[in-house]
Design a protein that fits this description.
The chain contains 15 helices and eight strands. It has 444 residues and is α/β, with parallel strands linked by helices. Helix 10 links the parallel strand 3 and strand 4. The longest helix has 26 residues.
Length: 444
Amino acid sequence: MTVESTAARSTTRRSGTGGKRATTKNAAGNAAEDATAPAEKSPSSGTSGARKTSGTRKTAKKPAGRTAAKSAAKKPAKSAKPAEGETQLVQLLTPEGERVEHPEYSVDLSAEELRGLYRDMVLTRRFDAEATSLQRQGELGLWASLLGQEAAQIGSGRALRDDDYVFPTYREHGVAWCRGVDPTNLLGMFRGVNHGGWDPKSNNFHLYTIVIGSQVLHATGYAMGVTMDDADSAVVAYFGDGASSQGDVAEAFTFAAVYNSPVVFFCQNNQWAISEPAERQSRVPIYQRARGFGFPGVRVDGNDVLACLAVTRAAVERARNGEGPMLVEAFTYRMGAHTTSDDPTRYRCEEERAEWEAKDPIHRLRVHLEKEGLADAEFLAGIEEESDAMGKHVREAIRSMPDPDTMAIFENVYADGHALVDEERAQFAEYLAGFAEGAAEEGR
């Protein structure tokens, strides 16, 4: 079986949607009710999100001493877990592969569409694994893995129309697949041979953004333009739990709310912003922060591809209908390192990772397909064969790319040149030449 690129499939089917929209009971969903609900307890502090006032002001506790800080640093921390019943998590497929109902969100997919979602996640994971291996082999300078976040990305990506516009971070490989971007084009930037590798206008998928949180502002501005053009498309901005602390994100929330912009803020809360747990980003669940800006928020099981599809579809329909922005928090987990330069064993527990492995998004959909008799051995073997072909295609593509120009970093820094840059260029060239001289000596 040969690899079928998503770009080629754009004229045929889009798996997981089949060209049909699932009906939702309420576009805003439980988030609309939540906007008027009493403040819930914070997962990190155990106190109410609304600060109590009294006649006397309590003095804040002093921070722990240096000895205590060192002791705490020795043991990796666990990310925050919401208390039972604290948040309303939208879930349509349990970790055991059982379909469940939700009062506000639903999705009705055919067997072909369900198999398409499974195919999307398997191939995306294989591509991601190959890219990680290629970086370890020196073919890429860096790679940001999406391992564990396939459901959040494929579910939300398949909820969009062709005329919707996506603003990603640097980890949305699954969304890129859904938008028809050739996976091998994603590798060029991480190899250092281009600045993106695809035309954003061709797929309505913006270039990857390395600056944390800035794309959320760009998405809001684009959405304001959509309103001015009197169009009915929606805009989706992807960001992580760490980026939610950036000022750019808060400003984007303000502008989107005030201008009632058709933008969906999709936060993949994978529990860790490099080495900082989510509890260091917010004292309340991230989706509740939308309340303070005047628009609804909802938390969805980010490892449930069906729930992510249903919630995102409802959110973009709400935006198209002129009802303004919405915040979707996909509660998931980063199974791998933040990037290939990171070592997550230094700051988080292996028990936590094992706990989330049991909620694997691909496994739960496969179990469901097998239980319902929707995927036989022939289908699964075919996906495995296609996955192997994908891996081979990626390896061949990266090795056919040129080596990056190591001296290009000094170009275009100043329009008219600069003495210090010239000096640094000469020093670096001399440093590189030393390797060539050393190799020549060994060859004698």
